[in-house]
Amino acid sequence: MNRSEYFVARSLALSVMLLLCGSGSAVAELTTADEIRECARGNFPEKTSIQFIELKSRDRAGNEKVMDARLHWKQDDEGHVRLMIRIDGPQDIKGSAYLVIEHKPRDVVYMYLPALVRPRRIVGGGSNSIWGTDFSHEDLRLLQMSSDTLGSERLADAEVAGRATYVVAQVTEPGSESAYSRIVSYIDKENCVALQTEYFDSSDQLHKRLTVDPTTVAQVNGLWTAHDMEMNDVGEETSSWIHVKHISLDEDISGRYFNTVQFYKD
Predict the structure, then answer these.
(1) Domains of the chain, with CATH numbers?
(2) Can you tell me the distance from the alpha carbon of 68 to that of 201, in angstroms, rounded to the nearest whole number?
(3) CA 44, 45, 48 angle in degrees (round to 5)?
(4) Up-side HSE of residue 112: CA atoms within 13 Å toward CB?
(5) What would the pLDDT profile of 225-246 be if each residue is shown by its tens digit?
């Protein structure tokens, strides 16, 4: 499906959802993984997203760290994603930034720290943790409207936080250098938002679990969007949270935020 065909299908899917949803009425039951994937894609912006977020982490000892950040996301005409995240506070790391460029078999990642003269490319791609949290560069890209988490195989339905969900699994493509071998997503049957996502390592052991507070899922420009999510590292027994304070969808964003030389500049 080319880009124009995709957006026609997306518009039709959204129209059907609006007709079926009304004032809280249920969306018609979906039957295949492809249908579930397209429903979830209906919540993606067409081109851009700007988010102002609070990023919090807690270690095993219970020590917490809180950061304010802004996140810029853009999808090009071929469907490839660029993601920039920049810290606004606290003061000691203010101005630090990452640029993540979707690429096969490994994402391309650039980092900037105020102590550096210029950005540098990170060897090893997107599996590294950002600012000591449980989120990696790859996690952030997958969280930001990525089809990589929308499974190609349908599993048995389940319940998450008291809500009925479709369950789909996505196996990592051969040759990919992703940190995950398999991703399982639990998609809310009413609004097609992923309420839980499980990330499995190369040994097919559960590595991380992302959960969304369904009470914080709200519409932004007609698209259902999660505003509070928690990432748990199962092995390390640590947790991190993202709280979306403000989000703008499909607004014009300067290309410099995604330029490998200028992305970090305010």
Answers:
(1) 3-258 (2.50.20.10)
(2) 29
(3) 130
(4) 25
(5) 999 999 999 999 999 999 999 9
> Rounded to whole angstroms, what are the CA distances from 52 to 28, 65, 202, 242, 244?
34, 17, 33, 10, 6
Instruction: Tell me the per-residue pLDDT of 154-189, one tens digit each, with 9 for 90 and over.
Output: 999 999 999 999 999 999 887 777 889 999 999 999
The CA dihedral of 193, 167, 107, 179, to the nearest 10 degrees, is 130
Tell me the C-alpha distance between 43 and 194, whole Å.
10
Residues in the chain: 266
The CB density around residue 6, as the number of other CB atoms within 10 Å, is 14
pTM above 0.90, yes or no: no
Contact 168, 185 (CB under 8 A): yes
Q: How many CA atoms lie within 13 A of 30 on its CB side?
A: 29
Intervals of the chain under pLDDT 70: 1-27, 124-126, 145-149
